[in-house]
Amino acid sequence: MHCCWEVPGAHLQAPVWLDGADMLVLADRAHGTLRCFAPDTGESGEIAVPGQPGFGVPTQEGSLLVGTARELLVLDREGRASREFLLEPGAQQTGHVHVDARGRVWFTMEAFGEAAAEVAGHGQAGLVRYHDERLVRMVFDMPMAGGMALDPEARELLLADGGAHRVRRYRVSRAGSLWEEAPFLDLAADALRPAALARDNEGGVWLAFAGSAHLRHYAADGTLHAQLDVPCREVTGLGFGGRGAEILYICARTAQGAALYTHDLAVPGPASCAVRTGHADIGLITEDDHH
Predict the structure, then answer these.
(1) Could you say which of 3.40.50.300, 2.120.10.30, 3.30.420.40, 1.10.10.10 is the CATH number of the domain covering 2-276?
(2) How far apart are CA 271 and CA 23, in angstroms?
(3) Is it the case that residue 134 has pLDDT exceeding 80?
(4) According to the model, what pLDDT value does residue 276 have?
(5) pLDDT score at 281
(6) Which residues of 157-178 are buried (b: 16+ CB within 10 A; e: fewer)?
C-alpha cells in the first residue's frame, strides 16, 4: 500500500477513474468541490461546482455528470455547468455512485444537516437510479446506504446497508427493477457498518466500514479472504483505476485532512463505464419496480 496524494483539510470520497485522461475525479465534501488527480504525474486540480457535489462520473460525450445536493449537473470540458435533472428538495446529499454497463447511474441519497432525522424518517434516503431523463427511487428509507456495485451483465446488485450491518443482494431485471435475495454479508455479530464498496472481476468485494481504518476483501461466496489496515482514521471511498483497473484507490480521512492510497491488485476491477445522458432509451422505464 502506498500513499500517493495528501490533501490538507479535505474530505475525499467517490474516486472515479477517467479512461483516456488517466486520472481520478473525486468529491471533496469539506470544500464543496471536485478534485482531479493524475497518479502518473502527481498533477492535481480543483473544480468549483454549484451546490455540494457528492460524485462526478464521465459521460459518453466527454463531460462529467455531477451529483449535488440539489441537482444533477453536466460539466463540460471548459468547466461550464448545465442542469441535467432537478432533484427533490430536502436535507439530502448525493453519495456513493456506480455506472452500469448500459450507461445508467445508480447512487445513494444520504440524509444530512439539521433536518437529517426528518428526512430519514420519511424514507427519502436510500438508493436511486437515473437514466432516460428520469430519476427512479429504488430502495427507500435506508439512511446509511453505502457503496453499491452491479455485475458486468447488470443482473445482480450488491448494496451496503450500514444501518442493518449488512451487504444486501438484489436481482436486477432488464428494466432495472430490484427484488431482494439472501444477504451477501451479515456483519451484525461484528458490529460493523459497511460503507464504501468495490467489486472485482471475479465477484470479490472490497469493503470499508463506517468509522474504521480497516478494509476487508470477501470472495464471491462471501468468505473473508483478506484484511488490510490503512494508516488513517477512516476509509471514506474506494474505486478501481489505472490501466487495466489493476489498482484499488482508497480515500482516507487523516488527522491533517485526507489522503489517497493505492493497493496493487491480483484480480483487477471492471473498466469504468460512461453515462449516457439525455433520453437514450436505455431502460424500460415503464416497467420500473421500487423496493
Answers:
(1) 2.120.10.30
(2) 14
(3) yes
(4) 86
(5) 55
(6) bbbbbbebbbbbbbebeeebbb
